[in-house]
Amino acid sequence: MNQAQDEFLSIPSVRPIPSREYYAATLPIFLSEAEETILGHLAKQSDFAIEQSQTYAWREQIRILKETLADNRLHPIQARGAVYFEYAIPRMGKRADVVLLLGSTIFVLEFKVGERSHLAHAVDQVVDYALDLKNFHQTSHAVTIAPVLIATEATCAFTVVAHSKDDLVLQPSLTNGQGLIEVLCGVLAFTDAPPLHADTWRAGSYCPTPTIVEAAMALYSGHSVEAISRSDADATNLSVTSTSLDHIIADAKANQRKVICFVTGVPGAGKTLVGMNIATKHIDPSESLYSVFLSGNGPLVKILHEALARDAITSAKQQGLRIKKGEAQSKVKAFIQNVHHFRDECLRDPNPPAEHVALFDEAQRAWDLEQTSKFMKAKKGRPDFQQSEPEFLISCMDRHPDWAVVVCLVGGGQEINTGEAGIGGWIKAINHSYPHWDVHLSSNLTDSEYSANGALEKLTDHPRVIRTPELHLGVSMRSFRAENVALWVKQVLDINPSLARQTLAQLQGKYPIVLTRNVAIAKAWLREQARGSERYGIVVSSQAQRLKPFAMDVKTPIDPVHWFLDGKDDVRSSYYLEDVATEFHVQGLELDWACVTWDADFRYSESGWQHGAFVGNRWNRIHKPERQIFQKNAYRVLLTRARQGMVIVVPTGDANDHTRLPEFYDDTFEYLKGMDLRVI
């Protein structure tokens, strides 16, 4: 590395910045530096053995860029430009081929060396990189970003698309190797902002907000929670909660104590991420802190198993290795387990489980005594079983003679099925059977949506209760564009329109929520909003049985693995907008853009929400308070699935169909419209 480059890479007056790229240089340095020297930097920084094909691709990229950037038309702005090869995109676990700072624009360049056409998935890829910078890189927020796909052997000279949405991310430009200069000049002609300073841009913090699938893949491959989570000052830092749990676990081991912790958080705050972070730190069975992540959410477990296995196979292939899918899946299943499989193993084997730390995701959904006893009698041949699921699961960890830790990850207002005990089931079990356990409570467990106040009162006599504020996650990561979406949903469902309007005003321009009565318009809106591989889909209540006229049949089973993981060319994926997912499929997961289609099962009226179940040929009123809560929570889950925005459809009904009369829907539409939602 020459002196000038060394000076460029070390930015004065700020703390050292970890390199996100394999090679960085100002444009004058890049143009003067020998190809072999640049290749040496790239090869040295690479995580994998360098294949001949990769070396050839880098040579072509260097050649094309040197020829392009030497063009006289760029000479006036050349001196202040900079180039970054193999720039890391942490949220996605990938690297952009080249990030180029030129004038006032960030160009994200994706090269397909030897390709003769611009494939759709490659277009999505470069757009994804641009959106990632826009959304999560501090010094890219207010800057024009131009994604460019270069198929080096394509016949087209160039296509410049300067149109952008309000966020300054341009539509992708397509070109070949020779036409890149025309793309750069064409884009620059549309921008007149002050030129970028390379050192300032590079110093910008990166605050990614991954989906749960992306986060699981990152953690499983060895990244820390700090590397993949937000760290801005106004967000509750996941690392604070993770560190608090680390200290509690270490203390339990050191002092030979048994401890249960309750971690709370708003929808999308990262409770699952916290749990997986702990589990991935202690994934080795030979380690004393060996941990297991347990979930009763069947779709989530299946999706994560498949996603992690696919990612492991891809990573191995990049390193020139080959592993079978069965082998990859077997390793993954030891990391993330279905809680019912864990329960059944503990029923079979009376010894302590291998793990000293058990993290229960969505702990509020564990079964109560009645549901557990019923299941044990019918499915396990144990007619005299008299423990709730929380009590039995704690008993399994209590078998350890020395120490154990149970971490309950609790979502508020997330109970959606009969027999779910809520957090009260865990507290009742502690009071009844485990007075020798220490109890660490989130300070927010008293909030109404956790329905734990009655149970918490019984803890007053427990000898070891510690209130720990760090165990609450108060900011949604899912809705990274606007953190108050969960609050808005709560206010809508609690029929507090004045507060809901105030909260919605704070969301304006950040997180679009629109309202329509037309399913076709809603689908078109979704497709218009989504860019790159941003995922969209239709979600409905599991009780929405009169949406069949719109080709939405909740009784038709879907495969959530295909729905959430497969691409735009697969009819089983969410992208096709043919299969709909219910609250049972999407809880714990997320989409970028969602269409929530509202049926007559949950209707607004002046006297409050009306709850219905469609039986046979008509709607029946639901009077049982527990079922009413489940239904309200189902809509809470649906309305908090989208990361970037949503459209709500309330159908018009049909006067000729007694099961879909207009009055079943009109009041709901008017109520939502009264929230100041934009109608499309």
Give the helix/strand class: alpha/beta
Number of helical elements? 25
How many distinct domains?
3
What is the helix fraction of residues, given as a range?
Answer: 25-40%
Give a quick account of the main beta sheet: strands, pairing sense, barrel closure: 8 strands, parallel
- How many β strands by DSSP? 23
> What proportion of the residues form beta strands (DSSP E)?
15-25%
- Gross geometry: globular
Instruction: Give the termini separation.
Output: 57 Å
Return residue spans where pLDDT drops below 50 for at least 5 consecutive residues: 1-17, 231-236
Radius of gyration of CA atoms, rounded to a whole number = 27 Å
Mean pLDDT: 87
Walk me through what this model shows.
The relative contact order is 0.08. The protein is 38% helix and 18% strand. The protein is an alpha/beta fold. Helix 3 (35-45) crosses helix 4 (52-69). Strands 8, 9, 10, 11, 12, 13, 14 and 15 form an eight-stranded parallel beta sheet that branches. Strands 1-2-3-4-5-7-6 form a seven-stranded mixed beta sheet, with helices on both faces. The longest helix has 21 residues, at 298-318. It is built from 25 helices and 23 strands. Strand 3 (94-102) and strand 4 (105-112) form a beta hairpin. The termini are far apart. The chain folds into three domains: 3-202, no CATH class; 235-297 and 339-473, Rossmann fold; 485-679, Rossmann fold.
